[in-house]
Amino acid sequence: MSAQLHITPRVTIPDFLVGEVQSKLAYVDESIVRAHVASTGDRITLDLREQAEDPKRSELEEKVQRVVTSMVQGAFKPKVQILENYLDRPVPSSADPNPELLARGEMFQEAAGIFTVGPLVTRLISFFERQFIALADSFGAAPYRFPTLIPAKSLERVGYFRAFPHSLSFVTHLREDLDAIDNFAQHAACDEHGLNTPVDSFAKIQALLSPAVCYHLYFALADKPLPGGKLAATAVGNCFRYESVNLASLERLWNFTMREVIFVGPKDFVLQNRETGRERMRGFFEEIGLAYRVESANDPFFIGEFKKQAAFQSAFQLKFEIRAALPFKQSTLAVGSYNYHQDFFGRSLNITLPDGSPAHTGCIAFGLERMAFAFLSQYGLDAANWPDAARKFVA
Ligand code: 5GP
Ligand code: ZN
Q1: Residue 154 forms part of a structural domain
Q2: Does ligand 1 lie within 6 Å of residue 246's CB atom?
Q3: How far does residue 237's CA lie from ligand 1's centre (Å)?
Q4: Strand 360-367 vs strand 331-340: parallel, antiparallel, or unpaired?
Q5: What separation in Å is there between the alpha carbon of 29 and the centre of ligand 2?
Q6: What digits encode the pLDDT tens for the residues 284-296?
Q7: Does residue 72's CB lie within 6 angstroms of at least one atom of ligand 1?
Q8: How far away, in angstroms, is 110 Cα from ligand 2 center?
Q9: C-beta of residue 150 within 8 angstroms of C-beta of residue 207
Q10: Which atom of ligand 1 is nearest to the CA of 367?
């Protein structure tokens, strides 16, 4: 039996934090199926797996209050800076592409957040990829291939555990132990919650699934002078961010693909290239008639870190998102971002410039599935209605 719990937050959630708080509530307790924060910020509704009685009810309420208080108290409204605004660009479709994607076999859900896409979407992604690679080539970016796994000790070194603990995806294997392996081979089975294997059959975690692409480049450059004093690189890779009940269609995946163009070098080199990259992409988005805007943003830091890190990113203009219109839900979706990390990775990983100072880094990142999803939301699945460049590419 499902049930609801209504909570009045002790402090009213300001409008600029409503979405951010709502997404964090998914991680508060396993009994929460969905969390909703009223746009007025004074009411929270939790859909629960089953009716909760005291003391569980009060415990839940207390955890929710804790999240709200730590995210809201002392937070100030970030000044949203808009660098480009083409949201009113006319587009032909306002239909939800999901039903048609499913019906045509262009999208298949293996499990929550794990999707296969079909030939049309794959070709459309190749079309965008061609453009992103052209952007990388325009900087003479060197191509790289990075692993899907990322060592725990590397993520620890860049403070990832503190910043984004909620979205980590851990990798393990059976312990080198004949009994554990035999036991698994004979008894492993899945119920609705997953594998029934005892946790002590698994080895200690040394690796995780990679949450981003550019980190791998920084790890490869760590603890030495940066050859030539500056570098532009590019790579595409699988990225993993566990999103709990926030997972939704191609809009929010556990496993998604990102293409990045990465810059390492002096501050001016990184900032100038980030800006040049944005200008070049503006031309491409115009060519394909994408309705979008570019605005300042922050990363989804976990509760404790959120306030200070988000304010810092905002104050120093470290992140700008390309938010494409989703006409069917009158909202926008981040399909890419222009990021500047200052000398954070240079300092944490000891990447040095010729003058001995830490290197600065930045990246331009595109989410491939989201890019395709936003485009299909604006132009529909019938390629005959697409702008020339995209239509010719998939023909
Ligand atoms: P960022 O590093 O800015 O968080 O992510 C870069 C890009 O990756 C985002 O702009 C977005 O396009 C994509 N991305 C991030 N998280 C997700 C996700 O959960 N699902 C999907 N499909 N794409 C994502
Ligand atoms: Zn990056």
Answers
A1: no
A2: no
A3: 12
A4: antiparallel
A5: 30
A6: 999 999 999 999 9
A7: no
A8: 27
A9: yes
A10: 12
- Give the closest residue (by CA) to ligand 1 atom 9: 336
- 14 and 129 co-located in one domain: no
| 329: amino acid identity, one letter | K
The encoded tokens of residue 250 equal 């191609």
Q: Residues 6 or more apart from 380 whose CB is under 8 A from it?
A: 92, 93, 95, 97, 100
CA distance 315 to 296: 10
User: What pTM does this model have?
Assistant: 0.94
Q: Domain for residue 307, yes or no?
A: yes
Which backbone phi and psi does 328 adopt, to 5 degrees?
A: -70, -20
Q: How confident is residue 128, by pLDDT bands cut at 50, 70 and 90?
A: very high
- Answer yes or no: do 181 and 57 share one domain: no
63-67 own/partner pairs: CB under 8 Å, 24+ apart: 63/28, 63/29, 64/7, 64/9, 64/25, 64/28, 65/7, 65/9, 65/10, 67/21, 67/24, 67/25, 67/28, 67/303
pLDDT digits (tens, 9 = 90+) for 236-261: 999 999 988 888 799 999 999 999 99
Ligand 1 pocket member 260 (CB < 6 A): no
Taking a C-beta distance cutoff of 8 angstroms, is the pair 71, 307 a contact? Answer: yes
Pick the ligand that lies closest to the CA of residue 238.
Answer: 1
Q: Are residues 192 and 293 in the same domain?
A: no
Q: Both 239 and 131 in a single domain?
A: yes
Ligand 1 centre to CA of 337 (Å) is: 8
Give yes or no for a contact between 165 and 302, defined as CB atoms under 8 angstroms apart. Answer: yes
